[in-house]
Write the structure tokens for this entry.
Amino acid sequence: MSDVLIRAENVGKKFCRELKKSLAYGVRDSATDLLRLKGNHDQLRPDEFWANRDVSFELRRGECLGLLGWNGAGKTTLLKMLNGIIRPDVGSIEIRGRVGALIALGAGFNPILTGQENVFVNASILGFSKQQTRDLYEQIVEFSELKDFMNTPVRSYSSGMQVRLGFAIASAMDPDVLIVDEVLAVGDNAFRMKCLTRIGELLSNSAVILVSHFMPQIARICSHALYLEHGKTRLLTSNVSEAISQYCGAIKNQEDRIVTSTGDVEVVGLTVLSGGKTVQENGDVYQVIHGESLDLTVSLRIGPSVNRFVVTFSFIDRNMDIVANFGSAAANEFFTRTGEVTVSASLPSNQLSFGTYSMGIYIVEHRDNGSQGRVYLTNSRICAFEVDGIPPGTAPVHFTGSWSQSQNS
């Protein structure tokens, strides 16, 4: 078991929601530890809750653990315990070797010091001598691409610049354990790809824990996955695809509730064609190909009080950002029929980059003066797409194509 670098056994951490009680509990717990008395750390006191509970896993050299879960699921708390920032209330954590961590934006930096000074301070904390740090300094500067800003105080750095410097320092020290929270989402796409490549290089001699809400990152580099839900382990597996599937399924269940409607418009059906062929797998997850035509047909039930309206399809990535819109208003098309209505939209070439997307639909009133009126329906997810065919890239902002409508019999 000499290659096991991280071992966590039944780890739990609790916090108090009320400040005064939290301070009182802290004083009481410190006194208990100081006097080496036995405390009831596994019991919740009034206003306390478990941020993590009964979390156990092992991670060996050469393995990368993807940590999945909603915001508030306990991911960052677990990372802080692994990095020694806070102590677990119950359970134990064992880590062998040097730890490099990038958990909170700007953590470990003195904002008054320059980038260069912060490099030497961070390196000394990790046990490096000044000469060792000098030997690594140019490598850190080159990786961070901040050569012109190393003599600038860190307080004047943007969030992206702080991430660049923080990751460059953490990865240059060749840590046995590298812990990276979702702060990489702050960086630009090119730098994220650079970081993932570096993580891949480190994996031959290190164990890595990566937190990300961007599933292609997890799928690309992780050998194991730990899915946390309400602070507890929902799934620990070497089948990363299964963990991603369960996590995305939970996202779908949540997104399905994000529907706002006046009751005047209802979606009753959807057909998707890619390259002229109907493609649908796993319920409502459509497999479409980059560059092929994309045809969308939505069946609507339109109430008699609805005036003429426009329809917009929006494509939303895993970061919940709208990356593309396909709207009839842009094509100067609006619809007037009521009852059972079918609206079709044809996109000559699907330019969505490789990855997973949700598709939302937005139906609003189109007034005589061309302005937007009443919002009849907002549904942030009527289906999901898996786009295949090209490497990850940047999706367009707007699609253009043709629209039509017909009266259902």
Remarks:
- The longest strand covers residues 372-388.
- Residues 163 and 187 are 7 Å apart (CA to CA).
